Amino acid sequence: MDDLFAPSDVSWTPVSPKLAAVRRLNAAIMAGVLGLAALFGLGLTLGWVYGGLALLVALAALGWSWVLIGRNQRSWKYAERDDELLVSHGIMFRELVVVPYGRMQFVDVAAGPLERAYGIATVELHTATPATDAKIPGLHPDEAGRLRDRLSALGQAQAWGL
């Protein structure tokens, strides 16, 4: 079954562990904001015991997401073949996206403020069918630029009458 989502005949490249750090920081910020809002909102209306319980729930959710974020980051990988790009990710719900170079319309590189601070970027491939779009988060900026240029060149060279 593993060969279905990660063919063994290719050399897989994992994404940077910094992706987990960025996602964990995002989760911590969200848990902090929601936890404090719940603490004060419930504390002022129902009593501080309920506000404290809401804060504990937010912290427990943060702890659980901390573990899941690490597992998810380790599941992301990509491989370049002669005619297509493969992107695989997911733990419980696994996904393998195969994008033929000739079907690509354009390639985006994006990096938000936290991603730039951690030195990572996301490459996104767009095709005519949104279901076959693919993205690769957590790439070093040099690798993201190299991949963008390579995919763009291969997309133009192998365009199938588009």
Describe the structure.
This protein is α+β, with helices and mostly antiparallel strands. It has two domains: about 20-70; about 75-155, PH-domain like, CATH 2.30.29. Helix content is about 50%, strand content about 25%. The radius of gyration is 20 Å and the shape is elongated. The two termini are about 35 Å apart. The model has no long low-confidence stretch (mean pLDDT about 90).
The sequence of SSEs as H and E is HEHHEEEEHEEH
Mean pLDDT: 88
In total, the number of strands is 7
Whole-angstrom Rg = 20 Å
How much β-strand is present in the residues? Answer: 15-25%
CATH architecture of the largest domain: Roll
The CATH homologous superfamily of the largest domain is named Pleckstrin-homology domain (PH domain)/Phosphotyrosine-binding domain (PTB)
Low-confidence stretches: none
Helix content: 40-55%
Strand order of the largest sheet: 1-2-3-4
Structural class: alpha+beta
Question: Can you count the helices?
Answer: 5
CATH domain class name of the largest domain: Mainly Beta
End-to-end distance, in Å?
A: 35 Å
Overall domain count: 2
Shape: elongated
Summarize the main sheet.
4 strands, antiparallel
Do you know the CATH topology of the largest domain?
PH-domain like
